[in-house]
# Entry
Amino acid sequence: MLAAVLLAFAPSAWATGWGLPTGSSDEGTVPGNTNIPWTSLNLAYNAGNSPPIGDYSNDYASNGYSVAGQVGNYADFTFPAAYCDSIGVYADSGDPSVDYVQIDVWRTTTSSWQTICGSTPLVGSFPENGVLPNDTWTVIPFTPTGNISAIRFRYHYTVGGWAYWLWDIAYHSIPPVPTIPTVATLNADLDLNSAVLQGQISDDGGLVCTAQFEYGTTTSYELGAVPVVPSYTTYSIGMICGAFLGGLTTGQTYHYRLDVTNSAGTTYGNDMTFTPAAPGAGWWVDATGDSADPSPPAQQWQNRTAAYDDDDQTLATISHYTTDPALTAYLYLTHSVALTCDKIRLKASTSANISAMEIDINTASGWTNIFNSGTYPDQQWLELSFAATAIMGVRIRFNVTTGGFIINITDFDFHIVGVEHCQAFVDGAFSGANK
# Structure
């Protein structure tokens, strides 16, 4: 039984406290009103720290001149998405000309504007009725329900000929309210006595997570747990994660599920089953093992399992530099039994720096080269055909010409001779028992 080692997933980092917009634009004429464009919008967020934010006595964004009974154009302010609970504003909202302002925030979860100050018709008291104190740093609170990424601001004049000044505007972010993760267990990719388990974390709950697959012959998952492939420490929400299981019994049905934990609790994914079986004709199948180069250069491949885990977010990697004129170490990918194959395929990184990529297959007569080139598609499937033969594995290596860098291999498959089965993709990774 494989030992369970949990891998930490880090959600996108959030900044807390007061922040300034990073971009701005005039939204244009409000329907039914005269076009009154804003000028120097960047001056409304060009300095300061929290709170109050700004340099009120020095400069401002300006909108004018007003038309009686109309609203000015919206001034839009954008920034990286943040989980916010309030907006801060300092504006020229004095008598006698301004009776209300309207401030909206852009909700990324609903892709819509929400008004947090001002309404039509005017009702209630500040901030609902949009009466903004004159030349005063004012904090406008609202209920956080997800990230926002923009603010827009406009005013209403009762008399004409006045210019409106917006001294400063800012947003206040807080850590997201934690929730338990949202996960799903997906189909496994099968072989004679191995499987690649797959799952998806669609929401980390706003917290660092750990993830593992439980498995067993019953829903007690009595055989233990295995980690998702440990080749990265951050996780892009919505991507597929996987884990390789070897040493399984052909014909035995296994249960498995993806479990994900954060400080708010654990979510247990849906139960799924698989039954290891000999791969059929036309199947694309994974390697079942890997090994280091027995007579290598100093630098060896890292995270070798990631080259055949059906997860496009994980990579087998090796460093190589122009100071080393030799080819890299081989990455050996093997199968537990001989496969009669007519082609292989892989995804790998490419660069103008790479002068050679060599791929050999291991046949009864020894190693046979099937590819030797510096040209191939970057992180797309490269499919290589050859005369059908029994093979036990492949080996892959690279060389570079100018500048050192990290070389990656994302995925690799063997093709069993026959008509290809239907292929199903989930977020770039294969799903389904026969891939």
